[in-house]
Amino acid sequence: MIKQKAVKLAARLERFGFDISEIYISPVLGEVPNSIDGISIPEYLDFLYRNEFGEINISYYHEEIPSTLLKEFGDTLDSKSIYGGPKIMSPDTILIELNRIKSVIEVCPERQDDPFWTEVIPFCWMSNGDYLCFNSAGEITYLAHDQDSFKLSNSFEDFWNFWQKVYFIGPEWWCLEPFSKSDGFIDLKSSSIKVFRKAFQLML
Question: N or C: which end of the chain has fewer CB within 10 A?
Answer without folding.
Answer: N
